[in-house]
Design brief:
The structure holds 2 protein chains of 2 kinds. Chain A is built from 10 helices and 7 strands. Chain A is of the alpha/beta class. In chain A, the strands form 2 sheets. A 5-stranded parallel β-sheet of chain A has the order 1-2-3-7-6, with helices on both faces. A two-stranded antiparallel ribbon of chain A has the order 4-5. The relative contact order of chain A is 0.17. Chain B has 2 domains: 163 residues, Thiamin diphosphate (ThDP)-binding fold, Pyr/PP domains (Rossmann fold, 3-Layer(aba) Sandwich); 126 residues, Rossmann fold (3-Layer(aba) Sandwich), CATH 3.40.50.920. Helices cover 41% and strands 20% of the residues of chain B. The longest helix of chain B has 14 residues. The termini of chain B are far apart. Classes of the chains: A alpha/beta, B alpha/beta.
Chain lengths: 282, 309
């Protein structure tokens, strides 16, 4: 990828992080850690890859996206707002009574949300159904989903892991946000889902391992997924939970905790600093 | 007329109305039992076997529905409503998707397989999901028309079918209206409100009561949700005593739905006939007797209810 474009995407991703934190801070509740870790891949998908139209969110042949790890809705709302589906200011209404930005994504309530999620394990299976629909209708739209690495402990993920290769859903790409942490701590200590890559390979997936914060690698993985015929693709992304906020990085405690005023202001200042540095590179 | 199990009606109706290209039928390795194999034979491209994975099947059905499909997800009631309850609630009910759940082998009439497969709680489970339509047909024609109504209705529908072959209770020119109860016999002393294969028992009970000089009204409630409040309130006001009958636990099913309507609108004594414990292996007819799902019990309960007026 062109270095300038990668820098531009990184700037947008940091704005998405700010939107997510602004939502969680104002709500006094929510999931910052995993929202920050998926901001780069979300930005790539919504700004670089997917065939979508913010003015026509229900466009029939659009690419679909399902946030299977629905608790990181703040990042999804951030990227949708930055992409123009709704005003960025609305991110501050997250989880408030009367806001359309519910704690977890809701179909039809939020422009651009393709499926209600929140109960782990279900979104990836729904996304498989969407990919199957495209195949049945002989349409060429693609379906993307992001799962948590802790989410892999849900049994039904592996039901879908059998299903998608069985029906040769090569229009289906999942990203595993492998930040290594779940609510109760290190994923390998809570209930070890590793080796993640070998498991998906054994189930018949095209598996690609990347750095979740490197746009060249994200782009290469998405292109390789599109080139792969007859198999779905699982992109295992090594990511940093709490990415780009120093005191949140790699801390399980920031899985589902809102920052206080002082912490929020520090986080925003760090992200503003990152954005300024990136803008200076343009 | 030959007896027909409503699961067979389900399979036949899927073939009959299946020429609609939007229809996709999913099953979880039970197509020979749920009778979706009839559809598979006719429309192989629109039949999807999900393997023994009901949680995934419900979510795949939801995903298909978001893309404009009418997805029929089929399994035994125990696994469709029981095992996959939370998938049905969160991925079908909450987003109000156009998924039709074809749940066969409901109730104790599954018989010999025993309690693990005798689903007696599905109506209660499904009733708690906002927007879920629940249909429990009594015979072949009603089951087939229920499938047609489910296709025409936009939104989630739970259809409950049986394994046991049953007699027709409805005429050949029967008109099915979603959400409307059917008065099969008028009467003023007591109302027997039944659903599914208890409807034929209710008609027998009415004949037996007539022999004792008691004039019983018989109402078939095929749509348990949304329930026909009007026909129930009218029965409560005009007969002042109600017996309900269903092949389901006494908690959460038709009896609960009827008492909710009666208590709020026209209080009168109501006796609920249903099961109160896990089922067991046996022939359906033997199980009906052991669990009180008989015309004889309806007669006894009717008399007791009348005495409470």
């Amino acid at each position: 990828m062109d270095a300038k474009r990668a820098t531009e995407l990184a700037i947008i991703a940091n704005r998405v992080r700010k939107d997510a934190l602004t939502g969680v801070y104002n709500a006094g509740a929510g999931h910052p850690g995993g929202s920050l870790s998926i901001a780069d891949v979300l930005t790539y998908l919504y700004f670089e890859e997917m065939n979508i139209d913010p003015k026509n969110p229900k466009m029939e042949n659009r690419d679909r996206f399902v946030l299977s790890k629905g608790h990181t809705a703040p990042a999804l709302y951030g990227v949708l707002a930055e992409r123009g589906y709704f005003p960025v200011e609305d991110c501050a209404t997250l989880r408030k009574i009367d806001s359309y930005l519910q704690g977890h994504p809701v179909l039809d309530k939020v422009p651009g949300v393709d499926m209600s999620t929140g109960s782990l394990g279900q979104g990836v299976c729904v996304a498989g159904g969407m990919a199957l629909a495209a195949k049945l209708d002989k349409k060429d739209y693609r379906v993307y989903a992001i799962l948590g690495d802790g989410e892999l402990e849900e049994g039904q993920v592996w039901e879908q892991a059998m299903f998608a290769p069985h029906y040769k859903l090569d229009n289906f790409t999942i990203f595993v946000d492998n930040n290594g942490l779940q609510i109760d701590g290190d994923i390998t200590k809570v209930m070890n889902p590793t080796p993640i890559d070998k498991k998906f390979e054994a189930f018949g997936w095209n598996v690609i391992k990347i750095d979740a914060h490197n746009y060249d690698e994200i782009e290469a993985a998405v292109e390789a997924a599109k080139a792969c015929k007859g198999k779905p693709t699982a992109v295992i992304m090594k990511s940093v939970k709490g990415k780009n906020v120093s005191f949140m990085e790699n801390q399980a405690a920031w899985h589902g905790t809102a920052p206080n005023k002082e912490q929020y202001e520090q986080a925003i200042s760090e992200l503003d600093q990152k954005i300024a540095e990136l803008e200076a590179m343009l | 007329m030959a007896k027909v199990a409503t699961r067979v009606s389900y399979g036949n109706a899927l073939v009959k109305y299946g020429n609609d290209e939007r229809i996709v039928v999913l099953d979880a390795d039970l197509s020979k039992s749920t009778k979706t194999d009839s559809f598979k034979k006719e429309y192989p491209d629109r039949f999807i076997n999900c393997g023994i994975a009901e949680a995934d099947m419900m979510c795949v059905a939801a995903g298909l529905a978001t893309c404009g499909k009418i997805a029929f997800a089929s399994s035994f009631a125990m696994f469709a409503a029981g095992r996959a309850f939370e998938q049905v609630r969160n991925s079908i009910g909450y987003p109000a998707l156009n998924v039709k759940i074809g749940a066969t082998h409901a109730g104790i009439s599954v018989g010999e397989d025993g309690a693990s497969h005798q689903c007696l709680e599905d109506i209660g489970l499904m009733r708690t999901i906002p927007g879920m339509v629940i249909i429990n047909p009594a015979d072949d024609i009603e089951a087939q028309l229920a499938v047609k109504a489910a296709i025409e209705h936009e939104g989630p529908v739970y259809m409950r079918f049986g394994r046991l072959a049953v007699d027709d209770v409805n005429p050949a020119d029967y008109k099915f209206e979603l959400g409307k109860g059917v008065q099969l016999k008028d009467g003023n002393d007591v109302s027997i409100i039944a659903t599914g294969l208890m409807v034929q028992e209710a008609l027998k009970a009415a004949d037996m009561l007539a022999a004792d000089g008691i004039d019983a009204r018989v109402i078939n409630i095929h749509t348990i949700k949304p329930i026909d409040e009007e026909i129930i309130i009218k029965a409560a006001k005009e007969t002042g005593a109600i017996v309900t009958a269903e092949e389901h636990y006494i908690m959460g099913g038709l009896g609960s739905a009827v008492t909710e309507v009666v208590c709020a609108n026209a209080p009168c004594p109501v006796k609920i006939i249903g099961t109160d414990r896990f089922g067991k292996s046996g022939k359906p007819a033997e199980l009906f007797v052991e669990y009180g799902l008989t015309a004889e019990n309806m007669v006894a309960q009717a008399k007791e209810t009348i005495s409470m007026k």
